[in-house]
Design brief:
Length: 319
Amino acid sequence: MNKTLFFNKIDQCSEEFDVKPGVLLDFFKILTEKRKLNSSEMLYELEIPKTNFIRVLKFFSEFLSPQGKFIALKPEIEEDIRKIIASENTFNESTFKDKYLEIYYQIQQDRPSPQREFDQFYATSETIIKRAIFLHKSNELYRRNILLLGDDDHTSIALALINTSIKIHVVDVDKKILESIEKIAKKNNLKIETSPADFRTEKLDSLKGKFDVVFTDPPYTTSGVDLFIDKAINCLRLRYSSTIFFCYGNSSRATERTLAVQKKIMEKYLMISLIEKNFNQYVGADSIGNGSSLYGCVITPSTKVPKFEKKDKRIYTYE
């Protein structure tokens, strides 16, 4: 089995049937482990719609033994597939943490001081590591195009380090942050593209519809979240497998603000598929208890790309 051919098939299947490449890799990984799973059990393991699953089975039929009670690889290609899968599953959590902490020292040295005018409060190194590992284990990184709308935390560095198959682009209003990311990425041979933009006044047309995943930690105001999520939708490929991740937090006495943010999300016909409470920890963000939650949103058939309009310029908490 030719490795290039195999991954071309993975990419083609992902594109045609809207299934994450990481899920398809998991499918073959399960098969190489010789776990005796029937179609219903495999469907449960992969967590994808049944229609898509049936299409995947048909697409890879040349690799599979004739349908019996269990799904299995053809014996003559099983060892080749096992070697290919092994070459892709090289992630070691402990090694990743050690490598990132080495780079984190560089980040601390090169990154500018937090700018209050941009609501910058830096997340802890533990939080950045947790974000990267969470996205990796959720199959949000493998062979995906990732956009970060704002990245004062330098989360992009951890994502590029954890998986070299992804394409990462960072957009930020703060050019000093972008310069810092570029410097650290170059020093560590990490592939990260950057571009400056003020989301309040710029359309981001060159990035429209190009990304599978958008990650953002926006200003914690209703208008701030509204603006950043609009930009996320604009840059996202409107597919079932696409995801928006955003962070949001406030005081436990201000739950009405969380409701206002969630209402904005619902008005955009996004479905909130994930809420990891107190996921993020920050330094110096005392007003929100130095923490925030991680939200995941997925596209629905009613999700539309929002029309560009100059939003309320007061998006930061100090305004």
